[in-house]
Design a protein that fits this description.
The chain is an alpha+beta fold. It has 4 helices and 22 strands. Strand 19 and strand 20 form a beta hairpin. The longest helix is centred in the N-terminal third of the chain and has 23 residues.
Amino acid sequence: MKKLMIFLSFLIILSAVVSVSASDAELVTLTLDPNGGDGEIVVITAENGSVIEIPDCAYTMENATFAFWTPDQDGAGAEEGILFYPGTKCYLYGNDTLYAQWTPLPDYSYSISFDPNCENVSGGMENMAGENGTFVLIPYCGFENPGFDFMYWTLTPEISKVKYYPMMSCPMIGDMTLYAQWTESQRFMIVYEEGVDEQGNPVVSEGLPDSEEVYDRYRYTVENSRSVANGYVFCGWTTEDFSGKEEFVAPGDTFSVSGNVTLKAVWISLPEDFEPTGSDVIALNRIIIEDSEYISRYDLNRDGVLDIFDLVPMAQYVVDHIPGRYDVALG
């Protein structure tokens, strides 16, 4: 019985020691003071006497960069080496505070210049300027490189890991040159076809322009050369793009290419057994009137009226068929 009493007394004493040790493991805090900087106050909570790691500074200060932490607000201890950099490990005893110390930025500005990084380029871009430590938005590319699309900017003429895209924020920490990087544009075909007349009959013509390959967004100019066919007046072209949309265009017109385009010739057929000559044009020019005697012969657009809309295609037909004018051998 005596031994049992001794054993119970030992357990009581051991429990008391453990209880006292547990009460010593209190929680304490380390406050990170921005010391004039901007940002939400950061407080670290840990067990008293534990090892903690000093974090990065989450604060900012205009025209200044973070240097290190010190236990003194004025940073006086830094001269004696009492300072803490992010990543430093230390023991935390009791509640404490570390103060951010700041290094003022020099009072001057930097510039960013833009290099097209190619030879056959048009357009231009002005340099950008900004105060030291501020941020600027990288602009869109103002250069045009025929046959190529702009991708992004880099710090070297060669493609590098660091890439700057338009509207990306960039810190002004020194003068820099950004180089444009390009990728080859997609290419499309411009194809000319003989087309059909107003009744849908295929037309056999001479002088059809050659097909041409162009790149995406190219401003294409319709060939000025005219296709000619006996018994028909050439009026222009209809375009049919990759979406099936059709639109009339005349020689010399321009449009932006965004897919394969087919240009089909548009024709007006002449009355049967009628081959206009210069005298016909002169005659029609004199008699542009409603006269049934001439309707069947000169009314090229079949609207029942002789007018300028008949004169013009007739005159064009005569011009088209001047021997040797278009280097086309007509039968």
